[in-house]
Amino acid sequence: MTMLRRPVLRSRSLGLGLALALTAGTLSGCAMSPGQQDTLQGVGIGAAGGAALGAIGGAIVGNPGMGAAVGAATGAALGGGGGYLYSKYNQQTDQQTAQTAQMRAQLAQQQAEINQLKAQQQK
Questions:
Q1: Where is the YMGG-like Gly-zipper domain (predicted)?
Q2: Distances (CA, A) of 45 to 4, 19, 28, 76, 97
Q3: Residues contacting residue 46 through CB under 8 Å, at least 6 positions apart
Q4: Separation CA 26–CA 20 (nearest Å)
Q5: Tens digit of each residue's pLDDT (9 = 90 or more) over 77-116
Q6: What's the start-to-end Cα distance of the chain, in Å?
Q7: Statement: residue 58 has pLDDT above 90
């Protein structure tokens, strides 16, 4: 009887992990900010990877279903955190790039003003 429960539990847990990953992938295309999309994609990828690794680890100790469930939950949490941090990094990089472009434009304007003043002095 025990041998019949393990494959069913394994397939349910793996199915749950895959369903979570597919749901996250589907929702990532909805009307969300880029930061939310990165976080949700991290959750989906983490859950799928965690479920797979958890099932392997669980199979070693004799309970692949529980391993997959724990792996999916842990992977989702870590993946979500990683996606959030990645999103924040991208926001900072975009902000710094915009500031750099603004500073370059100001510098170019100041250089043009300096050149005009030099031209006026030479007259």
A1: 42-84
A2: 30, 11, 12, 7, 29
A3: 74, 75, 76, 77, 78, 79, 80, 82
A4: 10
A5: 999 999 999 999 999 999 999 999 999 999 999 999 999 9
A6: 102
A7: no
d(CA 67, CA 87): 29
Per DSSP, 44 falls in state: H
Which tokens hold the place of 1? 């009887």
Phi and psi at residue 38, to the nearest 5° = -60, -45
Burial bucket for residue 60 (CB in 10 Å: 0-12, 13-18, 19+): exposed
**Residue carrying structure tokens 């990089």:** 93
Question: Tokens 């915009």 belong to which residue?
Answer: 98
Q: Is the dihedral of CA 111, 117, 122, 123 positive or negative?
A: positive
